[in-house]
Amino acid sequence: FELESSLRSALALQQFELHFQPIINMGTRKLHSLEVLLRWRRPNTGLVMPDKFIPIIEDNGLIVPIGEWVIRRACEQSMEWRRQGLRPVPLAVNLSPRQFMHKGLVPSIRRILDETGIEPSQLEFEITETALMQHGDHTLDILDQINAMGIRLSIDDFGTGYSSLAYLKRFPVKKIKIDRAFVKDLEHSAEDRAIVSAIVALSDSLQLSVVAEGVETEGHYYLLQRQGCQFAQGYLFSRPVPAEQAVHLLEQG
Ligand code: G
Ligand code: G
Ligand code: G
Ligand code: MN
Ligand code: NA
Question: Transmembrane region positions (predicted)?
């Protein structure tokens, strides 16, 4: 394929960039952290979104070096912002299943922490339920190692995958991100309200933080807050933005 061969050289040609989307504390309406989202600036095409290329690079293994670049670049960016005197907020990086299972992951994270000097508490990883459920005990081992480094872990797209509550309890996970599928129709769907309410209750009883994704309206915000959801992410606050614009989010607090 043409797309695949372009992707093979994209890293060396420095065509990838990171965008950032705020996660807001629902109590204070202030910035809590930023999710890191990869974009591919493809010549003659423009900005390519991850759903167009992540599945390809997951398939062909390029996710491993590209994913490592994302982690490194996010850590470097965090340190640059810190040197500029901006308020430090954690950056949450997505890990896809193949990346998560690669045996080089933990050593590469260690190296990146060492080389960039980032505080582990300033880095988080988001992993989907599906990725977590695929590999049994090995999964727990990797999660424990990442957790032992002081990096927080969250479960992304919660509620859409195959999940086991027993595992949820065993995993050293600190945060659940409610998939935006359950938020979208919150104002009109009693069923979705019940699901969200159950996820919030589950999170509370397991002492996990809970983030709602896809918060687009004040109605969403109101209902989520009433249900005790702590954090929110979505177009109501900001779309994912390039680093230059993320600086303004950090300046505003
Ligand atoms: O950026 P956007 O909102 O379009 O993201 C679409 C999907 O791509 C999300 O599921 C997100 O988790 C995934 N994604 C975005 N950036 C990265 C990345 O750096 N690494 C991995 N593995 N997935 C990413
Ligand atoms: O990692 P995850 O699958 O959660 O990736 C986040 C994705 O959700 C990105 O593609 C991001 O652009 C998208 N997104 C973030 N906020 C909103 C929102 O409010 N509405 C919708 N429809 N998508 C959103
Ligand atoms: O839309 P405006 O330019 O005012 O947004 C400025 C900042 O406030 C952006 O960082 C945006 O993410 C954030 N923001 C957007 N909507 C709201 C809101 O309803 N309340 C608060 N507190 N911040 C918001
Ligand atoms: Mn995510
Ligand atoms: Na998600």
Answer: none
pLDDT tens, position by position, for the chain (253 residues)?
Answer: 789 999 999 999 999 999 999 999 999 999 999 999 999 999 999 999 999 999 999 999 999 999 999 999 999 999 999 999 999 999 999 999 899 989 999 999 999 999 999 999 999 999 998 888 877 778 889 999 999 999 999 999 998 877 777 778 889 999 999 999 999 999 999 999 999 999 999 999 999 999 999 999 999 999 999 999 999 999 999 999 999 999 999 998 7
Which residue, by CA, sits nearest to atom 3 of ligand 1? 37
Domain 2-252 in CATH: superfamily? EAL domain (3.20.20.450)
Closest Cα to atom 22, ligand 2: which residue? 214
Tell me how far apart the alpha carbons of residues 132 and 153 are, in angstroms, rounded to a whole number: 11
- Cβ atoms of 145 and 107 within 8 Å: the answer is no
Encoding tokens for residue 48? 């390519």
Ligand 3 proximity of 239 Cβ (cutoff 6 Å): no
Distance 237 CA to ligand 3 centre (A): 5
Residue 40 pairs in a beta bridge with: 16, 48
Is 22 close to ligand 3, i.e. is its CB under 6 Å away? yes
Do the beta carbons of residue 196 and residue 182 sit within 8 Å?
yes
Q: Which residues surround ligand 4, an ion (CB under 5 A)?
A: 94, 126, 156
ipTM exceeds 0.90 = no
Q: How far apart are CA 191 and CA 187, in angstroms?
A: 10
